[in-house]
Known about the structure:
single chain, mainly alpha, about 95% helix, membrane
Amino acid sequence: YLILYIVIESYNIYNYNSYIEVLLLVVVVGRLPLIVVGSGWKLVVLLLEVAGRKLFSGI
């Protein structure tokens, strides 16, 4: 009975760990598009800034 309890407990701990891993994976995968979009947005802003400076210097 004790062995069964230990097996169940270790299984629960394993499930809990895999659940945490899945959660971390979901968070990381969820963050990736945000990071890409964020860096893309920064790049767009930078390009607009450079284009604006060129336009102003052209004027």
